[in-house]
Every structure is written in structure tokens, then in C-alpha cells.
Design a protein that fits this description.
By secondary structure, this protein is of the alpha/beta class. It contains 7 helices and 6 strands.
């Protein structure tokens, strides 16, 4: 028997996790290397990608249109765009967060990574584990 084939982990990253990973330093920024080296495949839906693009324009980040384009090009080639086949609604405290669950269900995600308390509290949704960034790193060490 040959070496065990590495499977890529299909992950829905919430917007704050992606932006923190791309803009700030620290533990969360290690996520960028995970998609670059093929360990994870970030999943987006039209809704989650739309939110990502919108948040990049917030004045607090002071990003130029060119810088925003560079950040989008940093993740998009490594990602998969998911067609939402099943809309999740009324599950999260914040209705805006349901789109991440819809993306995870429709995209057959292995997990959802978030810092949002209203999503983390669920722990799992339809068998899909929901965890923080540090939970992801602990999981990857064990895997």
C-alpha cells in the first residue's frame, strides 16, 4: 500500500475570518497558506462572496480598488463557487449568517470556520462541524 492520499478539506470561511487572514498578521494569517498549498478549498456562494467583496470596501480597511482586486485574486483561484441548491433560513441568530450554512450544505463542506458567536453556538449543522480558527488548527494537527 502506498502513502495515504491527502484529501483537500472543503471549508466555508466566514467573511471576518477570510479578511482577518488576508489583512492582519498572527495565527489567523496562516489560513492563507492552507489554501495556497491546497490543504483547504475555501467555498463561496454568490451571497458569501458578495459579502466578502462588500466588506473589503469598508472605510476602516482603507483599501484601494487595486488592493481589493489583489485580495480577491489571492483567494478566488483556490476557491470553489457553490451553487446554492438549498437555502437555509431562520437558523442563525443573525439572519445574514444563514448564507454560510446554505453554502456549507450545498457545497458539501467538511466544516465551517467562524468567529461569529451566533454561528459557533450551533457547534454542528447537519453534521457539518462549526469551529473557530484555533479549532481548525487543532483539527489539522490531529488529521
Amino acid at each position: 500500500m502506498g502513502p495515504k492520499k491527502k484529501t483537500k478539506v472543503r471549508i466555508v470561511l466566514d467573511t471576518n475570518v477570510i479578511i482577518s487572514a488576508m489583512i492582519f498578521k498572527g495565527e489567523v494569517s496562516k489560513i492563507v497558506n492552507l489554501w495556497r498549498n491546497g490543504t483547504i478549498i475555501p467555498l463561496f456562494s454568490k451571497g458569501t462572496f458578495g459579502e466578502f467583496k462588500k466588506v473589503l470596501t469598508y472605510p476602516k480597511f482603507a483599501l484601494s480598488p487595486d488592493e481589493i482586486e489583489v485580495l480577491i485574486e489571492e483567494i478566488l483561484p483556490f476557491s470553489e463557487i457553490v451553487d446554492i441548491k438549498e437555502e437555509v433560513s431562520g437558523v442563525c441568530r443573525d439572519p445574514e449568517d444563514d448564507k454560510f450554512l446554505s453554502c456549507a450544505v450545498s457545497g458539501r463542506a467538511d466544516m465551517i470556520i467562524t468567529g461569529e458567536a451566533g454561528i459557533i453556538i450551533l457547534r454542528r449543522y447537519r453534521g457539518i462541524p462549526i469551529m473557530t480558527v484555533s479549532g481548525l488548527f487543532r483539527w489539522l494537527k490531529k488529521a
